Each structure stands twice: as structure tokens, then as C-alpha cells.
Amino acid sequence: MSIAAHKARVGTALGATLGLAAAAWIVTVRQMHGMDMGVATQLGSFAFFVALWMAMMAAMMLPGAVPAVRRRAHADGPLRAVLPFVVSYLAVWTLVGALVYAVYRPHGTAVAGALVIAAGVYELTRLKQHCRRCCRERAGSGFAFGLYCVGSSIGLMVMLVALGVMSITWMLVIAVLVLVQKLLPAKAAIDVPVALAIVALGILIVIAPALVPGLMPPM
Questions:
Q1: Would you call 105 exposed, middle or buried from its count of C-beta atoms within 10 A (0-12, 13-18, 19+)?
Q2: What is the pLDDT of residues 58-88, one digit of tens each?
Q3: In angstroms, rounded to a whole number, what is the distance separating the alpha carbons of residues 134 and 145?
Q4: How confident is the model at residue 105 (pLDDT cuts 50, 70, 90)?
Q5: Which of 136, 216, 213 is nearest to 181 (CA)?
Q6: For residue 155, what pLDDT is reported?
Q7: How far is CA 36 from each of CA 4, 31, 211, rounded to the nearest angstrom?
Q8: Which residues contact 182 (CB under 8 A, 6 or more apart)?
Q9: Mean pLDDT, to the nearest integer, of 168-193?
Q10: Once rounded to an integer, what is the mean pLDDT over residues 143-147?
Q11: Which of 9, 66, 72, 148 would give a disulfide with 135, using CB separation of 3.0 to 4.6 Å?
């Protein structure tokens, strides 16, 4: 295969990955319309939630996986390797969604605040930093890559579930944070203030939840 043809196929793989993410955003926004009730959000049936969660993860996680997809395509060929890589990567996040469904309950602001504080603290742990580094630098199997990325982003996903799992606004905020952390190396000058801001948000939710828009269901 010529260099030009190989580059074209890699470009096709990357375009397909980003196209899938864009389509997932459209599906997610449509399906979640009117479902956000803040901390009182209901998940619906298992099949509905898992299908929606898969779309959410494709929308939120695939843009940040583009470097890994590119490395995989260069190493093993875009057609042969990229599809199972992406599918197994999303399968890991789907398992996380099944776990979320099993443990999730509508909750109060105190629980939401505590979870957000815990998410902020997790951002400062060695486990978080290790998983973030591996998520950025390693692209073995999609399953292994997914496990590292779950370890990197699980605190932020807990934050999303705590604040409003059907909230497009919070989903977008978390997606941006995930994307930045996947594309950029860790820097204490940025990461520490972000983590402290998350902790401060959690404290605000505990002491003054009315100041956080969208946290409580509309009357």
C-alpha cells in the first residue's frame, strides 16, 4: 500500500470515529430532552438507560480517543484494527453504565455534594494520574485502553451522575474536561486548581444548593 493510500485510510478511520461521536451527540440530545431533573432524575428502564449511556459515552469519549485510534490505525491498518478497538473501548464504558444503573438512586443535594467533593479529591490521587498517563500514552487493545480511561475519568463521571445524569449542560462540561485531560499532559498548575474548583463546587452544593442552577427539579 502506498503512503498516500495509507494516510487516506487512516484519515477515513479518524473521520469515522469523529462522525460517530457527532451522531452520538445528536442522538443523546434528542433522547435526553426533558429528562433532566437534577438530583431527582429517574433513569427509566435498564434497556433504555444502557442504550442511552452507550450514546453518551460515544459522544463524550470518542473525540479524546482519536490519538489512540490514529496510533492503532498506523500500527495495524485502519480497517482491520480500528473497528474492534473502538467497539471494545465503548464496551468497557457500557459495563460502567450497567453498574451505574445498578447503584443509582435519586438522591438529595447532600449526597450530590459529597460525591462531587470525592470526585475533586480523586483528581489529585496517584491512581488518577497513573490512569490518565496510560490513557494518553498506551493504545493496546480497546479493552485495556478503556480500563485506563475509566480509571482516568471515573471521578468526573461520578460528578456527572451526582449532578444530573440526564443533564446536557453537565454532560458538555464533563466532556470538555475529559477531552482536555486526554489530549494534554498533566500539569499541576492547571490540574490542582481544577480539582480544588470541583471540591469547592461540592461544598457549595452542600451548604447552598439553591445557588447551583439545575440541581433541583423545577417546581
A1: exposed
A2: 999 999 998 888 877 766 665 666 788 899 9
A3: 8
A4: very high
A5: 136
A6: 97
A7: 47, 11, 17
A8: 64, 65, 67, 132, 135, 136, 149, 152
A9: 94
A10: 92
A11: 148
How far is Cα 152 from Cα 156, in angstroms, rounded to an integer?
A: 9
Evaluate whether 131 touches 149 at the Cβ level (below 8 Å). Answer: yes
Of the candidates 62, 58, 61, 71, the one whose C-alpha atom is nearest the C-alpha of residue 140 is: 71
Above 70 in pLDDT, residue 119? yes
Residues whose CB is less than 8 angstroms from the CB of residue 22 and which lie 6 or more positions away in sequence, other chains included? none
**The dihedral sign for the CA sequence 114, 116, 120, 126:** positive
pLDDT > 90 fraction of the chain, expressed in percent and rounded? 70
Question: In terms of Cα–Cα distance, which of 30, 34, 87 is closest to 57?
Answer: 87
**Residue that is written with C-alpha cell 469523529 in the block:** 18
Q: Which amino acid is at 192?
A: V
